[in-house]
Amino acid sequence: VLSAVATASVEAHSDDEVDLATAVHGSGPAYVYLMIEAMIDAAVRQGMKRADAQKLVLATVQGSAAYAIETEQHPAALRNAVTSPGGTTAAGIAELEAASFRTAIDSAIDAAYERARELGE
Question: Does residue 116 contact residue 106 with C-beta atoms inside 8 Å?
Fold first, then answer.
C-alpha cells in the first residue's frame, strides 16, 4: 500500500523531521482514504449507487492530485479556479469550513506527530 503513495521524498535532518514526515506522509494515506470513504458514503446517502459513487470519487481524487502535481500551482489557486461564486462548490466549501475541516486535518497531523515522537523515545 505504501509503495503506491510513496513517490515523493524529502531530506530529513533530524528525528523530529522524520516524525513530522511520518505524521504527514506516513499517516496521510489514511486521512485521504477516510475522506474518500466519507465522500462515497455521502453520495450513497443521497441516492447514488455505491459503485458509481466510488468510481466518481476515486477519479476526482486521482485527477485533482495529478493536476496539482502537473501544474505545481498553490492548492488555494486550484480550489479557487473550480469554485464559482455562489455555486455548488462554494456552498460545499462553506460547509467544510463551518465544520472546521482544516482544524480537523491540523489536529490529526498534530496527534500523529506527537505519537511518532512518543514512539521514538
Answer: no
Q: Look up the pTM and report it.
A: 0.87
Residue with cell 505504501: 2
DSSP alpha helix (H) spans, the chain? 2-5, 15-21, 28-45, 50-71, 75-81, 88-98, 101-120
d(CA 29, CA 51): 21
Q: Tens digit of pLDDT for each residue in 76-118?
A: 999 999 999 999 999 999 999 999 999 999 999 999 999 999 9
| Tally of CB atoms within 10 A around 101 | 13
* Spatial CB neighbours of 60, under 8 Å, sequence gap ≥ 6: 39
Cell numbers given for 116: 511518532
Contact indicator for 81, 67 with CB cutoff of 8 Å: no
